[in-house]
Amino acid sequence: MPRSWINRYDPGVPAASDYPQWTVPDLLRRSASRFPDSPALHFYGTTLSYRELNALTTRFALALRKLGVQTGERVALMLPNIPQAVIAYYGAMKAGAVVVPMNPLYVEREIQTQLADSGSETIVALDLLYPRIRVVRERAGLPKRIIVTSLRDFLPTAKKLLYPLQARWAKRWIVVEKIAPVYGFLELLDPVPVATEAETSSLPSVEPTSLAQIQYTGGTTGIPKGVMLTHRNVVVSALQGRRWCSNFREGQEVFLGAVPLFHCYGLSTCQNLAVATGSRIVLLPRFQADEVMTAIQKHGISIMSGVPMMFSMMTECAKARRHDLRSIRVCLCGASPLSADVQDAFERLSGVTISEGYGLTEAGPTTHCNPIQGPHPHGSMGVPFPDTDARIVDVETGHRDVSIGEAGELVVRGPQVMQGYWNNEAETRAVLRDGWLYTGDIVRRDEDGFFFFMDRKKDVIKPWGETVYPREVEEILSQHPAVQEAVVVGTPDHHYGEAVKAYVVPISGTSVTEQDLIDHCRTSLARFKVPTVIEFRSELPRTIIGKVLRRALRDGAERPVTDAQPTR
């Protein structure tokens, strides 16, 4: 199909490429060969070179094999952004295992569900999380092996000595008895010397088409599903990101590692892209706006991946103007739409243009991005990546291509698209049709080839049989001077099918009523789009990367709306 959008690519960005037949660990091996002494990871004063990182991943792979981990076996990783997360990721794959990244915020029920669904018999986790995992093991017999590590394991000597005191003061000090089936991360590495060529060659060989990781969807609108990504999917995604940045300086860039690496977005646009190019990653296990901006200035961060919540918190930080952020050359935003106000504020603060992109876990994750250097319209999610096709089809049948400017469901295809859902053929058939991935997202396209996100298909509200896109209503509500944030959902209504309900976080110190906001909406929206109920909140439920949990809002609606009457 014609890819007219390639005319919007920056100079030097290829429309199509041949991708090497590499596995994910090959990205690390190649950089260790090309840039052996270059820094790979920086963590609070500790620096690991690419030579050291590659050696540690091999030692971890050998340790896993010694524990009995077999080729194709699933290994769960429940870790924040620390060196152990990177070591375990590439090390597990070198051992022939399939990586299952898990959110460290999961509670026992979520841990048990994901371990059972993926069949993970081994988990690598932070010691602070061990009590939850122990409960799951006692309850369900999973996992068979627990490998624990501490934040202090890769700290410099002085900070390592201080850590127990600080942890005890903060009541976060946990002592884990390391008796099988519980093992210490460092203890597993210590007995393993620098791997010989013979030992390295004893590790299993996997094909690019082999399964590399099972990445669970965020679950903001439903039950998480395990997305199957092959080594080729992951490698292609990293190389597409490299080719999108035509002014990239291999072996010299410094990445900000603040986006969670257990999330597909962080793994792709930060970890794998950085490792593939011999770049340095400055790891931060938690996001604190002042700490992040200090790190940008101190380390000369040149590549930043972020989510809207991060940019918002940085611009609102009281100390924002004290930091020099001009080292940033490439700034990417994903995970959810970025408001124009936040974008403008951060660009004024940093002097760099944010290139907003779009993707989903099922696409490994990126399919669209705005040019890094060239102009793009405000609010655009960009144009399709190299080697990626995109269509917009009618929502009703999913077969008819809609006209330019008309809203419809986005469908994509490309070498980064998943193989399907783990142990879920029905859901796989529903979204993978004739080689196309049906995203469930409502978008439109302009005459220049730029795509614009409108809403999730599942989030569309149908009062009176009319169509309401929540984001449109949210944008109008956000224009009110007393509104900090607004989220709109549909709530069941036995008379009218659905009613429009808004959750609003007001700006501190302002005064606004429900009727004020309804009147405000009536000036800019058709009557059937105007919220019938507005509930004020001090904050909204979110995922760890800042996505609003719409499902939680819909499920937890406290106020009945059965008598709501949207006016036609």
Oligomer: single chain
Spatial extent as radius of gyration:
24 Å
Beta-strand fraction estimate = 15-25%
Average predicted confidence as pLDDT: 89
Name the poorly predicted regions: 558-568
- Give the N-to-C terminal Cα separation: 41 Å
Strand order of the largest sheet: 2-1-11-10-12-13-14-15-16
CATH-level-4 superfamily name of the largest domain:
ANL, N-terminal domain
The count of domains is 2
In CATH's first tier, which class of the largest domain applies? Alpha Beta
What does the overall shape look like?
Answer: globular
**DSSP strand tally:** 25
Write the topology of this structure.
Elements: H1 24-34, E1 39-43, E2 46-49, H2 50-67, E3 74-78, H3 83-94, E4 98-101, H4 108-118, E5 122-126, H5 130-140, E6 145-149, H6 157-169, E7 182-184, H7 185-189, H8 197-201, E8 211-216, E9 226-230, H9 231-244, E10 254-257, H10 264-276, E11 280-283, H11 289-299, E12 303-306, H12 308-316, E13 330-333, H13 340-350, E14 354-359, E15 366-369, E16 383-384, E17 389-393, E18 408-413, E19 420-421, H14 425-431, E20 432-433, E21 436-445, E22 451-456, H15 470-478, E23 483-493, E24 497-506, H16 514-522, E25 533-536, H17 550-555
Helix pairs in contact: 1-2, 2-3, 4-5, 9-10, 12-13
Describe the structure.
The chain is α/β, with parallel strands linked by helices. It has 2 domains: 318 residues, Rossmann fold, CATH 3.40.50; 96 residues, ANL, C-terminal domain (GMP Synthetase, Chain A, domain 3, 2-Layer Sandwich), CATH 3.30.300. Helix content is 31%, strand content 22%. The protein has 17 helices and 25 strands. The strands form 5 sheets. Strands 2-1-11-10-12-13-14-15-16 form a 9-stranded mixed beta sheet, with helices on both faces. A 5-stranded parallel beta sheet has the order 4-3-5-6-7. A hairpin with a 6-residue loop joins β14 and β15. α4 crosses α5. It is globular. It starts with 23 loop residues before the first helix and ends in a 13-residue tail after the last helix.
